[in-house]
Amino acid sequence: MLSVFALLRYYATRPAARFLAHDMDSSSFSLLVRKLRETVGNRGDVEEIKSLLSDYKAVRSEYSKYITWNDSKYTRNLIDQGNGLFNLMTMCWGPGQTAPIHSHPGANCYVRMLEGKMEEQLYTKPIGPGARVELQRSRVLNTGDVIHLRDDISIHSMTNVSSQGAVTLHLYSPPYTASEIFNEDTGDVIRAPIMYTTKGAELQPQPEGITL
Ligand SMILES: [Fe+2]
């Protein structure tokens, strides 16, 4: 039989322990996180996950601790690690802030617009030496919209084209730690680690160099 001390040590050291706030309240945001944990990588298909994200009635007070702003770059705020099956995060975009053309290596990318308005450019991912990205189309993402991408469908860039801040909710399944950034003009590709401004609402040290 496990001692009380062994149980305490287990809960204090297991990896998800820093992201357990959503088990402790009954807000609709916490319910969304719990449903995603039950669904992603289990029975969930793309449409089911999109529906869960779409059905969430965005209440800012429920996710406000995952909102941070930075004058020089959008912020990325990790909410939940989905028992290792996905990463869920907000991203907060000041006016004009942008993510360059990038891939989501091996992952499904879901984005739910929580607040504001973004513009997205969709490209084909180049395959083979010397290949360049090709613009497929642009679209405007308004509050409430949900999108899904995989690299074999499109890669993309996103920009807050409005004069107000924008907040987006992103789910990546399976999670990944580095991406590729594509230069449309030169054809150059660089590997960029994924940075987090906060994890579990705690500020993180910021790495040097180019990150996504
Ligand atoms: Fe992306």
Topology:
Blueprint: H1 4-13, H2 28-39, H3 46-55, H4 60-63, E1 75-80, E2 87-93, E3 98-102, E4 108-115, E5 117-124, E6 134-142, E7 146-149, E8 155-159, E9 166-173, E10 178-182, E11 189-193, E12 198-199, E13 202-203
Parallel strand pairs: 1-12
Antiparallel strand pairs: 1-2, 2-9, 3-8, 4-7, 4-9, 5-6, 5-8, 10-11, 12-13
Residues 102, 104, 109, 156 line the site of fe (ii) ion (FE2).
Question: What are the defining features of this structure?
Answer:
single chain, 212 residues, alpha+beta, Jelly Rolls, 4 helices, 13 strands, globular, disordered N terminus, metal-binding, CDO_1, RmlC-like_jellyroll
Write up this protein.
Helix 2 (28-39) packs antiparallel against helix 3. Strand 1 (75-80) and strand 2 form a beta hairpin. It contains four helices and 13 strands. Helices cover 17% and strands 35% of the residues. The chain has one domain (18-203): Jelly Rolls, CATH 2.60.120. The protein is an alpha+beta fold and 212 residues long. Fe (ii) ion (FE2) binds next to loops. Belongs to the cysteine dioxygenase family.
Q: Which small-molecule species are bound to the chains here?
A: fe (ii) ion
Strand content: 25-35%
Percentage of helical residues? 10-25%
CA-CA gap between termini: 46 Å
The number of distinct β-strands equals 13
| Main β sheet profile | 7 strands, mixed
Mean pLDDT reading: 90
Oligomer: single chain
| Sheet/helix structural class | alpha+beta
Organism: Oopsacas minuta
Enzyme class: oxidoreductase
Pathway: Organosulfur biosynthesis; taurine biosynthesis; hypotaurine from L-cysteine: step 1/2
Cofactor: Fe cation
